[in-house]
Batch of 2 targets.
Target 1
Amino acid sequence: MPGRIQSVERAAAILKLLSGRSRRVGVVDLAGELGLPKGTVHGLLRTLQHVGFVEQDPETGKYQLGAAMLHMGSSYLDGNELRTRALNWSDSLAARSHEAVRIGTLHEGQVLIVHHVFRPDDSLQTLDVGSLLPAHATALGKVLLAYHPYVLDQLEAAGLDAFTGATICDRDRLELELGRIRERGWASDIGELTPSQVSIAAPIKDRSGMTSGAMGIFGPPDRLLVARQPRGELVAYVREAAAAVSRELGAIPWG
Amino acid sequence: MALRERYVAAIDQGTASSRCLVFDRFARLVSVAQKEHPHIYVRPGWVEHDPERIWRNVEEVVARSLNDARLEASDVVALGIANQRETTIVWDRATGRPLHNAINWQDTRTEPIVRELVGEYGHEFFRERSGLPVATYFSGPKLRWILHSISGLQKRAERGEVLFGTMDSWLIWRLTGRHLTDVTNASRTLLMNLHTLDWDGELLDALGVPRAMLPEIRPSVEVYGEAGGKLAGVPVAAALGDQQAALFGQTCFSAGEAKCTYGTGSFLLLNTGDRPVISSSGLLTTLCCRVGEEQPSYALEGSIAVTGALVQWFRDNLTLIASAPEIESLARTVEDNGGCYFVPAFSGLFAPHWRGDARGVIAGLTSYITKGHLARAVLEATAWQTREVVDAMRADAGLELSMLRVDGGMTANNLLMQFQADVLDLPIVRPNVAETVSLGAAYAAGLAVGFWPDTDALRANWHMAAQWRPNMESAVRERGYRKWRKAVARTVDWVDEDDEDDET
Ligand SMILES: Nc1ncnc2c1ncn2[C@@H]1O[C@H](COP(=O)(O)OP(=O)(O)OP(=O)(O)O)[C@@H](O)[C@H]1O
Ligand SMILES: [Mg+2]
């Protein structure tokens, strides 16, 4: 391998760090966490800012990922590509869980449905590929937010609407929930968008370890819940299917 | 003690890749491994594969799919094989080594042989006996070409020292050591008599093929032997051409049931029950399946050579997209095709036209056309070609479909599936397993060993995974179809008899 360029590696480390934070970070903290001199980090930030990969808040002087970076992130994996690569395992998930399956990606702070497999009971259902769902009130959306927390600012600015009594509308509570989702690797929504609907979802990760989509099932509480919690075997099916799609995309197994 | 779960494995040896899928008792996918192999383009119109490489890939995907699911051969009750059809291999009986690259079904080098055969015997001679028109597509002319091109081969073939087989035979030979083929594959050679289900003496004479080199024709669902290697001891229990396997996987077991599979090409097959229907509209008559010693069932087929392959071509040769699915994103950048139509007659036109002298055309080009319009035209070409074969089915079988069952890789394309519903004016339905080719091979093998009791048990597994409903004004549809047909008319009569001479 030819020699690696240190400053590119350092710039990448800054971007990775910022992409994992929901709040802006100052130069001093960044330098501390990366173990680099403040002057070096500052120089790198100036360059990244120049190309639009980071943005500086004019009031606090703190940094966050820039629009150019966010745009690249969201267009990184084409939704049509994701659907094609996920086709086999989303069919299989529907067959195992006996529920409808959806795959979503982040699109301007909302969940864009890129794939939908009918519940396998031959009842009348309509494809809802292309529709948009609120991110903070669905399992798909919460998974995506958990791994792309920098979207939260944008979301909060637009307002966290209440759809039911169970919707999480408070930013701090939402952050707590997202932390839990990151810990256990899956999300659920229990009547948070529609009172009589439950959804369960897990992340689809690509080769670089980025969460490029979320995959999950949805259905009525009496089928998806036991003792008011998502059924263990359904959670396992969802996680296995999402991991299988991740493997298909080249992610390290269970990484 | 928990009952031990058992599985069925399927090999899908396709045009572009080889796959191994494992299914459980409820027909749910447990594991999948896939590996592509290169096409060898010797010169324009010539398409070959390396049979040894394909065999290695098959071994590799079998091993990978078992390993991924942590399965041993003893967990697998049966192996089914589905394969790209017509592709022709000749190998040495003693060494087991191929004597020539496999000549792919898309290959058009046998155009001069076909012209000769038509001149000497006429199409009817072949159609009455084999159910097929004479075309470069089928194995017979390819075998004739190989026998002619290697000196001394004809003599060795007469002595039975060299063997012919389609991909099923090649794999079964390597797996079990037996030289045989199933009826569905044999029905694509132009050498089998559709009524006796045996090699036809007159057809063999016409093509100059010695009987001694041909495999034994067996039912599609039957235990042929035991596999070796990674699958040691597993019964090889079914073989079907990939399109017939897909029909089986879609559980189209009764007369009147049809499906269309969208892969490299697209193939619409209609089960016509226990009697062959001879087409007068440019369809093929072919075997549907034969289960053990039961009566065989027949099918009418509309074969379209180039559909997904056009998307690949758009990706690899024009490099306007980086992956096949991206074509949908590109196509969605525009509202419509801008008046542009693309007829991909790369190997001539197959059903319902059968014009070997046709070559591809992009019609309606103006300075207005962008790559987005071209992407649309590429996708629409699949839908319009399918419309043509559905119309031929209507004419031949008096068939009135109430919906069309679809499967294959291109069904992941929502824009295409919606457009297909629009131009057929029919609902399009995709089942819960898009890999119906493998599922069909697994079903057939599972039936052979009693893993599933009967076809009713299999029907119960079929569930709708997606549906697209037609939503296009009939005037728009008819205008589009008219333009499509005008574009098709511009592809024919392109190849001249002396074209070959320039290249040799
Ligand atoms: N999203 C998509 N949009 C359009 N075309 C697609 C899409 N995904 C796959 N394809 C096309 O579908 C084909 C792959 O489908 P599939 O896997 O069913 O075919 P295949 O089994 O490889 O074909 P064969 O059996 O002939 O080898 C490729 O030709 C590819 O170009
Ligand atoms: Mg195939």
Note: The radius of gyration of chain A is 19 Å.
Target 2
Amino acid sequence: MSFLVLEGLTKRFGDQAAVDSLDLVVEQGEFVSLLGPSGCGKTTTLQMIAGFVEPTSGSILLDGRDLLAIKPSQRGLGIVFQSYALFPHMTAAENVAFGLEMQGVPRAERSQRVSETLALVGLAALADRYPRRMSGGQQQRVALARALVIRPRILLLDEPLSNLDAKLREEMQIELRQIQRTVGTTTILVTHDQAEAMALSDRIVVMNKGRVEQIGRPHEAYEKPASAFVAGFLGKTNVLPAAVEQRNGAAVASIGDGSWPLPAEASGRVTVSVRPEKIAFIDQADCSLAGTVRTRIFQGNHWLYQIDTACGLVTVIRQNAGEMMPAEGAAVRLTWRPQDMTVSPAGQDGRI
Amino acid sequence: MSRNGPLALAFHTLFVTFILAPILVVCVVAFTPEGYLSVPTDRVSLRWFRAIADYPEFIDAFWNSVWLAAASSAIAVGFSVPAALAIARYDFTGREALTALFLSPLMVPHVVLGIAFLRFFTQIGLGGTFVGLVLSHIVIVFPFALRLVLSSAVGMDRAIEHAAISLGASDFAVFRRVTLPLILPGLASGWALAFIQSFDEVTMTVFIAAPGTVTLPVRMFLYIQDNIDPLVTSVSACVIAITVVFLVVLDRIYGLERLLVGRGSGDGA
Ligand SMILES: Nc1ncnc2c1ncn2[C@@H]1O[C@H](COP(=O)(O)OP(=O)(O)OP(=O)(O)O)[C@@H](O)[C@H]1O
Ligand SMILES: [Mg+2]
């Protein structure tokens, strides 16, 4: 049986749906990320699981039991808030001990578990320090330890790393993943950072305007985005207008002066998205688009091109294999494999 | 640290002088050897301080004032905690109206309040009692207590309480272990401000105080109606001295700035 099941979960504020019939199944021990732009309903979803926001409709089952019937204080979930929400009048150790105290864990076991957990997040030395005298990263660890020490059934993380600088964030990502693997707690992470979601998660839930766009493994969602929105949100992509017509019983998409056989069902005007690193330069071919190099930037391990084409500016990334590459102003032809295209109805350009 | 221009500096100096000068003058006059209000010129004397001992009603009035101020501000702070939490957190209908109602004693002239309370207390049999005084003082100090408690309640991050709840804390445990400690600075400064307001009040109190429940300011007010001598200045000097000692002690054990500015011990550095 599935561990956590969200079914038709909906939250309306007035007539605006912050979360719109969200379905999600999470297995025990899984690390799932809710990913989406600001205001898409990630926090609201998390708060409904935590019990601080009441769903308008839908159900949440944890281990087969109706979670909505349980008070927030009895749900046994560990939460790390974006602002950390540490108790400022308690030391790190007291913060971590709070949950155990509430559970009535005896003093000896309590201090044992507190020091274990502080050691787990690498803060053993700072047990007696107050949060205001800690760095953002250290406070973040205390918040994590405080949530983990009660052995929560699920760990809910609301943008826990967004207040940290880029370098620290990367370190904490690795650490977070390691800790989660060690403890094995089922984890739901809210983030708007696609790199973070891909680096950490077993599966990603891409959300847009309260709805789920795609649920899948990071690699799968990146390679096979379900919509132009997902393609645009997960990594960079080029969005090109195309016209689909039937030739000899097969669908063919015309893009600029080139045409590609279509892998998917479509007709009429569509938009096609292609990732910059999937585009290659070629001398002459059917499946290719003419253009001129506008800018070329060398970035060490790869080249970053902006190409003027009949379909607008196209970004191309080529590995630096030590070969000669087209210079600025050169006429080039761009090609990509049909299966590298994501096709969606026209008007839906994955930009955000 | 702060860079003030010469003009601003002059202004601040004048301003502070203007505020402090009367206090200074009172303290100086208290040491006069003469029988009338004058600045001592050739010698100083403790004559008027010794004179306080001949008027035990000043001492009694002082203690009346202290107990009255302590009780009324404590009760006002007690009431303002639930009121402030409700106003800060919930968006209920009539919230604005309720806030206005709570703050309205600020708008009513104390003379009016004095006459109203005199009439009302006589009617319900509380006329001239200490209980009546406390009740009336609760009304006038409540806005001050509420303002400061409210500002600390509004400034509190709800997520901190949510964190406590998610860790299994009951409503009561959340309040006692998290909410209360976090708004404590607001409570303390609200209490201190309310205390000062009550201790200072004369316009209203003069109407409702009976001979046994007269407060210090009222006693002094009544005294100078009959006698113009430096006794009131020596009493004032004593009150000022007590206040200064009190503030110094408070600063040592708590940090005055934190108390008055209302910054929680928990604020980030
Ligand atoms: N209490 C509320 N009252 C009214 N509208 C709300 C409330 N809380 C959230 N919303 C709306 O619901 C939508 C989703 O909000 P939510 O906080 O879940 O977004 P989010 O995905 O977490 O965004 P962010 O990345 O900015 O944190 C937003 O449009 C927001 O304006
Ligand atoms: Mg959010």
Note: Helices of chain A lie at 42-50, 92-102, 107-120, 136-148, 166-183, 194-200, 218-223, 228-233.
